[in-house]
Amino acid sequence: MNFMHALNAAWQDRNSLLCVGLDPDPARFPAHLRGQPDAIFTFCKAIVDATADLVCSFKPQIAYFAAQRAEEQLQALIAHIHSAHPTIPVILDAKRGDIGSTAEQYAIEAFERFKADALTVNPYMGRDSIEPYLAYGDKGIILLCRTSNPGGSDLQFLDVGGEKLYERLARLVSGDWNQSGQCALVVGATFPGEIARVRELTGNMPLLVPGIGAQGGDIEATVRAGCTATGDGLLINSSRAILYAGNGEDFANAARRVAVDTRDAINACRHPA
Prior knowledge:
Keywords: Decarboxylase, Lyase, Pyrimidine biosynthesis
CATH topology: TIM Barrel
CATH class: Alpha Beta
EC number: 4.1.1.23
Strand content: 5-15%
Largest sheet: 8 strands, parallel
CATH superfamily: Aldolase class I
Helix content: 40-55%
CATH architecture: Alpha-Beta Barrel
Radius of gyration: 18 Å
Number of strands: 8
Active site: 95
Enzyme class: lyase
Pathway: Pyrimidine metabolism; UMP biosynthesis via de novo pathway; UMP from orotate: step 2/2
Distance between the termini: 35 Å
């Protein structure tokens, strides 16, 4: 799969900008799954199968799997998505950041071990820290730019030669760093003004936007600020609000209902009645 091609096709074929984040917390699972050795895979697979026709991508967060020693379940989950829903790209949310041979190992982990189609990366160590990921020409590299957490302003708003650091990064990534066309940026839904600024600086570059739902980001403001002229360009992520919409045996159906509502709310702003 070529990530950028698959993402563009998913935007069109599913008429959706919704990305479902897979952040499995066993403490929040329905009672009938607790204690099962493969509960994480079973839970996430049910969510995936219930929402696959509604999304442009899935985004498993590696820490939720690694903390439970469930990397094999993550590997099985991504394999299931590729097998059962082969046109949906999978973003491994790991926010890797290092240089040289260590970055090469992180790239092997993401793209060869887990078979992810894209990876989130922390770019603040500079261009050479992302080059090992760019060596995988069909993969997406999604770089942190303006993050959704309040503390992001501590560094990302620093003045660097008359512009904010996140603005400098957006220009670098969309210009010299993106000669292969593999790059995208993370910009939080909690800052729609900064989404608009990043869109202004980067043209049609895809933006992964976390922060709606449990984090309080506004869907309409996000869409207005970040959509391209063709009504796409965004991967609007929702995790907890969808995953934990229900806590009974019908949890996947409850997740689907919230995913439908979220997708439709996004589309109402893309294509106002």
